[in-house]
Amino acid sequence: MTPPASSVSPAVVVDDVTFSYGGAPVIQGLSCAIGSGELVAIAGANGVGKSTLLHLVLGLYRPEAGTVRLLGVDPSRLARRGALGYVPQRRVIADVLPATVAEVLLSGLLSRSTWWRRPTASARARAMSALDAVGLVDRADDRFQTLSGGQQQRVLIAKALAGDPTVLVLDEPLAGVDAESQRLIAAVLRQRADAGACVIVVSHELEVLDPVVDRVLLLAGGRVAFEGALADLPVHRHGHGHW
User: Fold this and answer.
1) Mean pLDDT of the 76-102 span
2) CA distances in angstroms from 190 to 28, 88, 186, listed in the order given
3) Can you tell me whether residue 102 is helix, strand or coil?
4) Which of 78, 104, 148, 157 is deepest in the core (most CB within 10 A)?
5) Beta carbons of 51 and 202 less than 8 angstroms apart
6) Based on the number of CB atoms within 10 Å of its own CB, is 190 exposed (0-12), middle (13-18) or buried (19 or more)?
7) How far apart are CA 94 and CA 141, in angstroms?
């Protein structure tokens, strides 16, 4: 498959990429292109390389063959790191961490600044706006550990949104969270794409994404085996609404 031609350069281009772990190929000759303003889901069985593809897009891994372009450059050379938002698979934060929701939220802004400079008032306002978008602005002063799993995930997504990223990449953001949080997260991601961002989501929870996603990339055999509308996705699911 060849990335589609366009008069506007896609935000993400993966061209004939191969990547292996310990000599075992996971991705083999994979190509795809994702544009600004698109919300694209990446689906497939466990172990087919979904998270690996995200890591290649983020520049955390380098392809053995082929090229990856993020906003027109090699991901490792992206000068505007704030243009990229990333939400990895959710991990439990230690109960002893004495962090409030606001502190977790603002930590992402601190990492983009110099060590002696606090986030500006406008940056803090964007962060609070992102927290409001996920429905948790009233919990800003609460300890992060007191939130439910779904609420914690919403805070981590707000943290990624606070930097106003051009490309937002999320790895299983809907896994293990309640139905209300799933619906709210899906709506927030759609809003982000409608505002012009390129949004890429790895997920098994395709049924929740059905109302908001533009297209699905199904990975199999190291390549994109299907690309198109979710309604046209081949039905080989493991349980209701899951791949």
Assistant:
1) 78
2) 30, 19, 6
3) helix
4) 157
5) yes
6) middle
7) 18
Q: Which residues pair with 171 in a beta bridge?
A: 202
First to last CA, the chain: 22
CB-CB contact of 59 with 30 (8 Å): no
With cut-offs at 50, 70 and 90, classify the pLDDT of residue 89: confident
Residues facing residue 100 across a β-bridge: 143
What tokens were used for 199? 């949004």
Orientation of helix 121-133 relative to helix 149-161, angle to 10° = 140
192 is written with which tokens?
A: 């982000």
Region 220-242: mean pLDDT is 77
Using alpha carbons only, what angle is made at residue 73 by residues 70 and 74, rounded to the nearest 5 degrees?
80
For residue 215, pLDDT over 70 is answered with yes
- Distance in angstroms (rounded) separating the CA atoms of residues 186 and 213: 9
pLDDT at site 93? 55
Rounded percentage of the chain residues whose pLDDT exceeds 90? 66
Q: Give the pLDDT confidence of 112-157 residue by residue, as tens digits.
A: 544 445 667 887 888 899 999 999 999 999 999 899 989 999 999 9
